[in-house]
Amino acid sequence: MLEFNLQHSYPGFDFQTGDVQLPGDGITAVFGPSGCGKTTLIKTLSGLEKAQGWVKLNNQAWQSDKLFLPVHQRRIGMVFQDAALLPHLSVQGNLDYALKRSGFERAQHRAQQDRWIELLNLGNLLNQSVLTLSGGQKQRVGIARALLSNPQILMLDEPMSALDWRTKNELIPLIKDVSKASKLPILLITHSPEEVERLADQVLLLNQGRVEQLESLQQTLSRPDSPLFDEQGAVSVLIGQPGKVSDGLQQIQLGDNTLWVKPLKRANQEPVRIRVLARDVSLALSDPKDLSIVNHMPVKIDELIEQPDHRLLVRLRLDNQQHLFAEITQQSAQRLNLQPGLVIYALIKSVALAE
Ligand SMILES: Nc1ncnc2c1ncn2[C@@H]1O[C@H](COP(=O)(O)OP(=O)(O)OP(=O)(O)O)[C@@H](O)[C@H]1O
Fold it and tell me: Does the keyword Transport belong to this entry (predicted)?
C-alpha cells in the first residue's frame, strides 16, 4: 500500500494531496486536466522533487520529518512518455543494465528476464539497437526494464500519449497482463479518459493541485458530471464474463443477460470490459423482440438527470447491479412516462470491447 501526504508549491501553483492511501495492487489512474499536478505528484512521490510531508510504501518510510530517501532507493519502476532507454545499447543491453542494479540474485536473472521478455513479446528484438525501435516497441522495452529493476511499485507517466491508436491497442492489454502477473501496484498518469476506462481499477482525480477523489472506476463513471466524460458524452463500462462464440459473435454474460460482441482477440476466460456510450443506448417499454439491434436487456431506472439542450441522462441498473447510462431527449422521456423504479428495456446500438 502506498500512503502519502505531500505539499509542494511552484510560483502560482499550490499542491496539497491530503492523506491518501492507494491499494497494494491493481492499476490506479491519476487523471485530471492539464496543469492539475499529475507530474508534480510523480516527481514528489519518487523523490525527484523534494516536497514537504511523508510517503510510505508497504509501511516502509520513503520520506518523513527525519528521512528523505533519494529516488534510486525508492524501488520504483518508472516508465516515461519517451521510454528514455539508453541509446547506445541494444534491447538486451538495456535489460541487462536494469538487472545489474536490481538486487535480484544472479541465479534469478535468467528466469526474471525470460518471464518479462515473453510477456512483453520482446524475444525477437533483443539484439536490436534501441534507436531502431518503433514507439510501441520502445515502451515495451521500457516496461520490461522497469520490471527488471525489481521494483515495489510501477509508475507509468503518460506511457501511451505519443503512440498511435493501433499501437495503443496493443499496449493496453499488455499493461493489464503486467499488472496481473507482477501483482505490483501501478500508478498510471494519463489525460486520456479512454485509457482510464480500459485500464484503471481505481481513479485518483486531481484538480488544481488537490486530490478530489480516490474511488473505483465504477464510482467515477456513475456520476453524471464525471470528469471522464468528454465530447462523446456519458460513458458506461460494463464488466462481463466471456462465453461461447456463435454465428460470428461472442457472448458476454452480464448476470442473467447476454451481450453479443465481436469475437475476443484473446481466448481466455478473464472478465472483459465493455464500453458503451450513453448516446448509443435507447429505451423501450417492452421487450423489442423483432428488432435488428441484437443487444437489449431489462433494466431499472435509477435516476433521470436533466442535461442542456432538452436532453436527459437516464441512469439504469442491470440485474447484476452494474449501471448503464442512456441519453435521450426529454420529449422521449415524457412520451414513455419514464420514472425512477420503472423496469424498461435498454437497446444498445453499439458496444466496444475495451480489451
Ligand atoms: N519546475 C517547475 N517550476 C515552476 N512551475 C512548475 C514546475 N513544474 C510544474 N510547474 C507548474 O505546476 C503546475 C502543475 O504542473 P504539472 O506538470 O504537475 O501538471 P500536469 O497535470 O502534469 O500537466 P500536463 O497534463 O499538462 O502534463 C503547472 O501550473 C506548472 O506550470
Answer: yes
